[in-house]
Amino acid sequence: MKVLGDTTNKLETFQSTLAELDSFVQAKCPLDVRRSKRDVDNDNLEYVARGYHVSMSNDGVNYSEEETVLIFNETCVNCTVGELGPTCVVKVMIKCN
Predict the structure, then answer these.
(1) Which phi and psi (to 5°) does residue 51 adopt?
(2) How far apart are CA 55 and CA 67, in angstroms?
(3) Of 39, 41, 81, 82, which is most buried by a Cβ count within 10 Å?
(4) How many other C-beta atoms can be found within 10 angstroms of the C-beta atom of residue 57?
(5) How many angstroms separate the CA atoms of 70 and 50, rounded?
(6) What is the pTM of this model?
(7) CA torsion, points 63, 21, 81, 92, in degrees to nearest 10?
(8) Under a CB-based contact definition with an 8 Å cutoff, are residues 20 and 27 in contact?
(9) Residue pair 3/79 in contact by the 8 Å Cβ criterion
(10) Angle (nearest 5°) at CA 44 between 38 and 50
(11) How far is Cα 72 from Cα 74, in angstroms, rounded to an integer?
């Protein structure tokens, strides 16, 4: 997903990856993403955050509840996830990379 203020553009893709168990209550999964500057869509809106809905499964059939993970520049943007989804607010009016 991409977030611009209180508008979320959902990009429906599904990715499954094997987790590495850190402890009996914690695992980590690599995401196949590259670090990049903020994207500019065809409508010339700059999205200030990128996000994922993450869930876990032991068998590939039954999944946990999804958690939303947002990636953003915390120097320039403040993002929260509420009942209606993610919301991001630009903190300062400077160019942030």
Answers:
(1) -145, 165
(2) 6
(3) 81
(4) 11
(5) 6
(6) 0.64
(7) -150
(8) yes
(9) yes
(10) 30
(11) 6
pLDDT value, residue 95: 64
The residue written with tokens 């990856």 in the block is 17
What type of residue sits at position 13? T
Q: How high is the pLDDT of residue 62?
A: 93
Sequence spans of domains, the chain: 2-90
Q: Return the amino acid letter for 51.
A: G
Within the chain, strands assigned E span 2-4, 7-9, 20-23, 26-28, 49-54, 67-72, 77-82, 85-90
Helix, strand, coil percentages, rounded to 5, for the chain: 0, 40, 60
Which tokens belong to 49?
């955050």
How many Cα atoms sit within 13 Å of 94 on the Cβ side?
7
Which amino acid is residue 82, in one-letter code? G
Joined tokens for residue 93: 């009016």
> How many residues make up the chain in this entry?
97
